[in-house]
Amino acid sequence: MHIHVLIPSYKRPNELLRLLRAIEQLDLKPRKVTVADNDAERAEAKAVCQSLAPEFAFPLRCILVHERGISAARNALFNEAANEADCDFAALIDDDEIPDTAWLKELIQVQASTDADIVGGAVAPIFDGSPPEHIAEHEILRSQPMKSGPIEMVVRTGNTLIRTNFIRDFAEQWFDPAFGLTGGEDFDFMLRAKLKGAKFAYSNESVIYHFITVDRTTSKWLLMRLFRIGGTELASNMKNRPPGWSSSLTLVRTFLGLGKGCLLFLVSTNKASRMKWKGRIAYHCGRLAAFCGRLHKAYA
Fold it and tell me: Residue 269 and residue 239: Cα distance in Å, rounded?
């Protein structure tokens, strides 16, 4: 079985080194690892790979992606996997994460039992410092426990296994450059995959650990992230028009969601509850901004 691990990287050489060392410890070994360096000017990720490659446990390659944006980096990685005739699966992980040693083994087990095209896994946070509980326990920073097996749709690519034949047969650009600097390119790809008939599954036992820096444990950062997610999800739905989706109905639901969020925020009596409903308000404000054609460029 040929598994190709794909890693987009941007200005995180130390984090990339940590990830690559963790990949060497996996129970189920990949055949190859490829890194896409999206900072072609400084090329720090390429330097890390060049220093490790001679003694790395598996073939390690780095490609420079000159076009800025996470979509360009992910497209370059998918192109690498798709052009390998004997590659069975692509495993996706980000440079600020590390896998549990059973990561690939658990993803493959669920894929084999469900025959899924795309399998997602769990995310557990590792915090720099000690954020307040109402931040640390927020649902946006950690995946919620789910039963392993078939699901309706995977929504992110930070811990994902994809059948390479599905990538090859996709017949259009995988990640839309319009989301390159906003994020949300992974949701858009997954939505289009669903519309093409992809089968999805989830592995609760396949865990990656996401390192969360201090600047990402503030109320402001969480609210901006939810604002961005609301906007990019709506923009993707507007673009792809999945069956049953309606602009007018979504707009009504957005205003209702805003009203509910404001009301429940006002009556909340603890920080966790107030943070939850502030987050829902931010999410729906992001949707309204997207209706007006404005998306937050989180990665500009």
Answer: 39
Give CA torsion, residues 251, 151, 141, 103, to 10 deg: -150
Q: What is the per-residue pLDDT across 238-292, written as a single tens digit (0 to 9) for each? A: 999 999 999 999 999 999 999 999 999 999 999 999 999 999 999 999 999 999 9
Is 212 a residue whose pLDDT tops 90?
yes
SS3 track for 60-91: EEEEECCCCCHHHHHHHHHHHHHCCCCCCEEE
**162 vs 164: CA distance, rounded Å:** 6
User: What digits encode the pLDDT tens for the residues 83-139?
Assistant: 998 999 999 999 999 999 999 999 999 999 999 999 999 999 999 989 999 999 998
